[in-house]
Design brief:
The complex is a heterodimer of chains A (about 110) and B (about 110). By secondary structure, chain A is mostly beta strands. Chain A has strands spanning about 5, 10-15, 20-25, 30-35, 45-50, 55, 65-70, 75-80, 85-95, 105, 110-114. In chain A, strands 2, 4, 5, 6, 9, 10 and 11 form a seven-stranded mixed beta sheet that branches. Chain A has a four-stranded antiparallel beta sheet with strand order 1-3-8-7, with no helix packed on it. In chain A, a hairpin with a 2-residue loop joins strand 5 (about 45-50) and strand 6. Chain B is built from no helices and twelve strands. In chain B, strands 2, 5, 6, 10, 11 and 12 form a six-stranded mixed beta sheet that branches. Chain B has a four-stranded antiparallel beta sheet with strand order 3-9-8-7, with no helix packed on it. In chain B, strands 1-4 form a two-stranded antiparallel sheet. Classes of the chains: A mainly beta (about 110), B mainly beta (about 110). The interface between A and B is medium-sized, with 24 and 26 residues.
């Protein structure tokens, strides 16, 4: 069974650019959540996708957007990058939406904005 | 706003000492509660979870946590820590379709 994978591992961008991060969910999982983890902080919930639809969103501006594909893999897009967007971006998948589901985390993508 | 508070930011213990990490949350409705661990160089892993039923839940590696609804708390415990427990520990709450993590507690166990 393959776990959650994310690409790329590291990324460097400059302010104002756009970035796309990718996540492959664990086999059999139809729900994907994205988190931003700044240095020294806990993960902050960005949004969740369930069967290609957004199923909940945290306190992030609209320049953070996402997609989920029919195979349940997902993308996180961030437009107009700001310095404060530098963080570890985590993807987590779960077997289904709803509270009674454990999330399985990927290794993350480290984004640096210069 | 909903929040999760972890009171201990850094904890240093000797091997065999007992551990208790505090976690409080602010949410009045039904919640699911989790503790995650992140070992050095590894990604987040689930230690234990509470959905319903017995408020004392047992997880992997000898960890347990107790849900006290009246105190909005979900403290993590281990009777005797080992050097291999050195890691970052995160409390998390799933409320509605939102997920909230605490800021984490860094545990260092000295051999």
């Amino acid at each position: 069974e393959t776990g959650v994978t994310q690409s790329p591992t590291h990324l460097i961008k400059t302010r104002g650019q756009q970035v796309t991060l990718r996540c492959s969910s664990q086999s059999g999982h139809n729900t994907v959540s994205w988190y931003q983890q700044a240095l020294g902080q806990g993960p902050q919930f960005i949004f969740q996708y369930y069967r290609e639809e957004e199923n909940g969103r945290g306190n992030f501006p609209p320049r953070f957007s996402g997609l989920q594909f029919p195979n349940y893999s997902s993308e996180l897009n961030v437009n107009a990058l700001e310095l404060d967007d530098s963080a570890l971006y985590l993807c987590a998948s779960s077997p289904n939406r709803g509270r009674n589901n454990e999330q399985f985390f990927g290794p993350g993508t480290r984004l640096t904005v210069l | 706003a909903q929040s999760v508070s972890q009171h201990n930011h850094h904890v240093i213990l000797s091997e065999a000492a007992s551990l208790e990490l505090g976690c409080n949350y602010s949410y009045g409705g039904t919640v699911n509660l989790f503790w995650y661990v992140q070992y050095p160089g590894q990604h987040l892993q689930l230690l234990l979870k509470y959905f319903s039923g017995d408020p004392l839940v047992k997880g992997i590696k000898g960890f347990e946590a107790e849900f006290i609804k009246s105190k909005f708390s979900f403290n993590l415990r281990k009777p005797s820590v080992q050097w291999s427990d050195t890691a970052e520990y995160f409390c998390a709450v799933n409320a509605g379709n939102q997920f909230y993590f605490g800021t984490g507690t860094s545990l260092t166990v000295i051999p």
